Amino acid sequence: MAADTPVRPPEESYDAWAAEAGHAHSTRDARRRTHGPAAFLRRLIGVREEILDRESAERARYTWYGAIVLNTALLGGASMAMAIGTVREGTPVAGAVAVGVVWAWIVLALDSWLVSSTHGYTGGRAVRMLVPRLLLSVVLGLTIAEPLLFQIFDREIRQEMAVDRERDLADFRGGLTACNPLDGTDTTPRADCDDFHLTVKGAPASIKEDIADNTGAVTRLGRQIKSYNDTLDKKLATERRECARNRWIWRGNGWDTTETCERARADTSAYKRTSKVAQYEEKRAELVTKGNALSDQLISTGTAYRADVKKAIDAKVAERKDSQQHDGLLLRADALSTVAWSDGFALFITFLLHAVLLLVDAMPVLAKLMSGPSEYDRRLGERREANQRIHLEDLDVRRQVAGIDHEVRRYAAEVRAEEDKARLGHARYKARAEHARMVREELDARTARLLGE
Q1: 83 pLDDT band (50/70/90 cuts)?
Q2: Residue whose C-alpha is closest to residue 216's, from 305, 301, 296, 294
Q3: Residue 318: Cβ-neighbour burial (10 angstroms; 0-12, 13-18, 19+)
Q4: ∠ CA(426), CA(430), CA(434), 5° rounding?
Q5: Is this prediction's pTM over 0.70?
Q6: Nearest to residue 63, comparing CAs of 284, 356, 367?
């Protein structure tokens, strides 16, 4: 037991020992207050430990206040890492984490400034300073909340995006099919087909145009041949009428046709000789043969063309489907909006989560606004006012010293001026005396000469 009992120093050195122990204890307390996780959290929001030492009861309050700022920054970093992973698929985890760390540092710096810049203000002035900072924190919170909402509604967003993609592909295929008919019909004049035209070789449109031109030529030749035949039928009818037996006359030794009949026969023969009906009929036969060949070519070409059009449409749809594989930020935002407005409960949950995340993101400023001014703020405000008064007094002292220095310099200048005046006056007096002496000497010399003569 005796070995466990601490040895008390001698009486004569007890006071020094107690003072040294008290100093060591106070040093450990000061180091514990200025170092460690709690002090780090307080430094994040700009708390001055030498002022907080006078209000030690508020140390826990500002420690947790710093924890709120740090948690908001970590939440923002995680949200940004998720956003980077969403926007750019295939991004390495290390890259997303690096971007998240940088964004967390930015959020931490902004929130630290927002909070630290409000210390020491009380009353209405504190509210006026906090309101714009609250708006800024809400804007910052929106950038943090959206990626988190994307993760919360990830399943619904993906489902909605899949439905939108299928609907878009169906509409796209319908537009391609309507604007690229399998029969090769020209849809160029249609304004709604400007974005759906496909270039497919072997379109039967040109063959159809050739068939239409050929059919028109056959029709025109048919009309010409019919006109010739109608005219020839009329002439033959006239010839038969005029050359009928009941029109014959007795001429010479027997019955014979009349001159009118002879003229009708001659007119019919001349019309047959001068007409080109045989050429027209031959040409029409050639055109009919060509039309049959074009029809056969249209049938064979149309079969291949329909297959090529289907392949081109399938290729375009597949290309569009490949372009839809990437989930962009705007696509997710649009899908989230669709999910939210599709159902009343979903809309309520979306707004509720938005509000909760915004409140969490704006909590650093909200905590300052709701907690009101503290004794630390009052102490800091008093320190700021005292520093301002000291500064003003220092400026006043400097102005007074400058005034005194100016007066001294002016007095010294005046003294130097008086001395210069005195020196100049003495030099002038001396010069005049020297001049008078020289004049007297000259007069004395002249007087002596005159007396000598």
Answers
A1: confident
A2: 294
A3: exposed
A4: 175
A5: no
A6: 367
